[in-house]
Amino acid sequence: xxxxxxxxxxxxxxxxxxxxxxxxxxxxxxxxxxxxxxxxxxxxxxxxxxxxxxxxxxxxxxxxxxxxxxxxxxxxxxxxxxxxxxxxxxxxxxxxxxxxxxxxxxxxxxxxxxxxxxxxxxxxxxxxxxxxxxxxxxxxxxxxxxxxxxxxxxxxxxxxxxxxxxxxxxxxxxxxxxxxxxxxxxxxxxxxxxxxxxxxxxxxxxxxxxxxxxxxxxxxxxxxxxxxxxxxxxxxxxxxxxxxxxxxxxxxxxxxxxxxxxxxxxxxxxxxxxxxxxxxxxxxxxxxxxxxxxxxxxxxxxxxxxxxxxxxxxxxxxxxxxxxxxxxxxxxxxxxxxxxxxxxxxxxxxxxxxxxxxxxxxxxxxxxxxxxxxxxxxxxxxxxxxxxxxxxxxxxxxxxxxxxxxxxxxxxxxxxxxxxxxxxxxxxxxxxxxxxxxxxxxxxxxxxxxxxxxxxxxxxxxxxxxxxxxxxxxxxxxxxxxxxx
Length: 485
Fold this sequence. Notes:
This protein has helices at 18-25, 53-58, 62-80, 96-107, 121-128, 141-145, 166-176, 230-241, 247-251, 258-273, 277-301, 306-319, 322-325, 334-351, 369-382, 390-406, 410-430, 436-460, 470-482, and strands at residues 2-7, 29-32, 48-51, 82-87, 111-115, 137-140, 158-161, 185-190, 198-203, 218-221. By secondary structure, the protein is of the alpha/beta class. The protein folds into 5 domains: 2-118, Cobalt-precorrin-4 Transmethylase, domain 1, CATH 3.40.1010; 122-221, Tetrapyrrole methylase, C-terminal domain (Methyltransferase, Cobalt-precorrin-4 Transmethylase, Domain 2, 2-Layer Sandwich), CATH 3.30.950; 230-297, Orthogonal Bundle (Helix Hairpins), CATH 1.10.287.1080; 359-434, Orthogonal Bundle (Helix Hairpins); 437-482. A 5-stranded parallel sheet has the order 3-2-4-1-5, with helices on both faces. Strand 6 (137-140), helix 6 and strand 7 (158-161) form a beta-alpha-beta unit. Helix 10 (258-273) packs antiparallel against helix 11 (277-301).
């Protein structure tokens, strides 16, 4: 059994190889991925053409379209002993059906012969005046359109083939807008390789408004900026750690960077608290810098690579969302989703469970004490170590407060206040406050605003703050409170 796959090129068939013409002249039935090709009128006479155009209308996803076409080609090969299948351009450039056919054929012990043709790439490069060695990325627009984020390095140019309709262009631009600006300048290349080839310059948001889109349309995305990619960032960090880099960066270790990781995390939280997007982009960048520094140190020590980190993280995200990537059904209730997440997480930990390990060991002890207290209480509660209702925790607050007043020394009183704080964290948990750290930051910010008001008012009156009585400062404090500070 044999499957022969011919590349028909991008325009007329006068550029086909002698091998391609030989196969076509001996072919009675030619299967076409699509009948939308300008050179089909030049086929040898007597060939019966059967296209798969209707398959595109029968399925909702292009993945299913490609799978269906591949399946049909294999069935013909098994039934007839041989089949000739033709695609636009070159079979091994941007042809998703061909890769599927080759995989399935290998498993079924069916031979596949590839007869190459001129791909869409060469004429597109000629029209654009580009060199493919500039890091050109080649993708199937149909595959990209079905994703939520484009699999593209924005620092490098890209060609996206098969933008064959305005509906494809519409879906494609929505995916691309997750990385490129709406008004990013792009080019649509129509009829590449033919006499009527033309390049249309427009903004990304406009591509589905083009009236020139046809079966052979390709989208060109120029590079954004050499420093706009994750890869460029990794290269900079690796350079800094190299012998030609920075002495300070070379000296850093996982342990020496610990305080910077905490500091950058807190600064990012501050930007979030202030709803400052400009500060947030800066602080998240600084936080990402710490991740890349630690990863580069790990690479040099042979511990793990960035690919290891990303693969493990991606696998975890998919594994912990079985209602998205699996067959688990959910009604969308957030508590139900939280239970699903926790169940998967518990199953993961069970695989590496240590009998001597505590339920509390997964809480990082270096985390802020308020967060640790909250997580300890949550994990203990999940094991059943909790009050039956909220009145129990309220009574415990009263009990701990009484012990504070009953303490005989300052040291004992401080310890009792610590116990009281822990119970208050539990009370917040019962009140569905899942982030007491943020709550306390809000209280701190409120105190800052009101005390700053007191300082400002004191300065306006020409006296030092320490010259005011407590009652006078209280009046200024209450005035700030009335102002909504």
